[in-house]
Structures are given as structure tokens and as C-alpha cells.
TrEMBL record:
The protein's name: Glycosyltransferase
InterPro entries linked to this entry: Glyco_trans_2-like, Glycosyltransf_2, Nucleotide-diphossugar_trans
A Pfam family the protein falls into: Glycos_transf_2
Gene source species: Nakamurella antarctica
Region of interest called Disordered, as start-end residue ranges on this chain: 241-263
Amino acid sequence: MVTSKIVGTCQFSVLTACLPERSVYLNEAAASVARARELVSPNELEWIIAVDGPGDLPDVTAQARVVRIERRSGISAARNAALAFARGDLIAPLDADDTLVADGLLEAQEALLNDHLGWIACNRVLLSTQGKTGHWHGRRTWQPGGLAESWSAPFAFHPNSIVVRRDLILRCGGWPALATNEDLFLAMLLSERAAGLSIEAVLTRYRVWDGQEVSSPSYPATKRIAFRFIEASLNSIRREFDRDPVTHPRPGGAYGKRATGTR
């Protein structure tokens, strides 16, 4: 792994895991990060790209810190590699095929002036049409443990469109090692340890394309296994906090039909 030394601190660390063979849209992600820096301040927003496996990226590395993982290890391992070098007080994931919206970052930062909140869930829109996704949500406060009790398919918000305190995500162990829905599991782990807030602000623009994992024929079966593990792990954690167990909903597809978990 080739990295650079950590020095200093900043407000935001935007983390992107990228497979070299799927980096075709990375230039658009880079342009969105550059726009965000103009609003936030260049010194207060760092972008860390974790390259998952051998291969070259488009020439965007001048504005990013690059962490290379020589052996392909999966999205969770790549994000965690980026997290290891993050200097920001606040962490925001950005997929390599999506784009960042600076206004969402700033609204999440303002909400996190409340010391009782550990994480903020934002909305996302479709990049092609700017239309709302199936996870669109309004403003809602989540008390510790409350997110698992409202587990539904589709989820209450898109779990990859979040801003979280760095110390909280580190206490949760970063992104869990699941084949899919690692972001959903992380959101619920964050919720077990800290209160959070859903806000209407848009943080990311989401691209739909044929090469995505959710388009794979194996995705539904992989998702069922992930939900089974998430339920078992969550309930083990919830016992420590003397909270009632939860049952996962029927997973459905990429967005699913709404079905609520039971307590």
C-alpha cells in the first residue's frame, strides 16, 4: 500500500473506494469535489481515493490523496483504508460513479453543531434526471437504537449518503465486511451508539448504470445473506444495551417494496 503521511486536521474527509476498471466516471466525481472545495474552503475538505486492486486511474490524483491496495479487497476494506488516513472531523463517503453536493455537506456540518448527534443522513437525487430516489426522506431525529426498530425495505434513507463524526465511525469499526449492504449495516451500528438526524438536504447525485452491483443476478441472494447476518449481529449488540431484538424485513431488490421489520 502506498500512502502519504498524515499531518494536521480539517473539517471534512470525503472517501472514495474505486476499482480501476470501473473508474470511468471518476472525473465527474473529481469535478464535484472541486466545486465543493470552492464553497467549503480548499484547506477544509480533503478527498481520499482508495484504489481497490492493481490498475490505473484517470488523472485526478492532483486533488486527492491516493491509497493503493495492491490486492483487490472489496469496498469495505477500501473505504476503511481511506478512513485510516482521514484527517477530517467529519467523514462522508462518495462512490466513484456519483457526484458530491456541497450544500448537503454544509447543512450536515451545521446540524452536527449539536453535540448530541453523531451522524446525519442526507438525501440523494438521480444524476440523470435530478429526480428523487426511492429513499427520499424528510427531517427526523433518531434516538440511539431507534433506526433498527424502524428497519424497512426500502430503508428509511439511503445509508451511503451520510456525514458522520470520525471518532464515532472508528468506534464502530468502520465499514463492515459484507458483500453488500455494508452501508446499511454501518448506519445501524452508528445508530446503536449515537443519536442521528435525517435532513432533506441532498448530499450526493446517484448514477444508475448497467455495471452496478445491484444489477447483478446474484444481488438478491447476496442481500438475503447480508440481512440475515445484520439481524444477528445487531441483536447481539442490542442485548448489551438492554434493547428489544429486531427482525429484518424481506430484502426485496435494489430498492425493494416497503416492508417493516418487527420488534
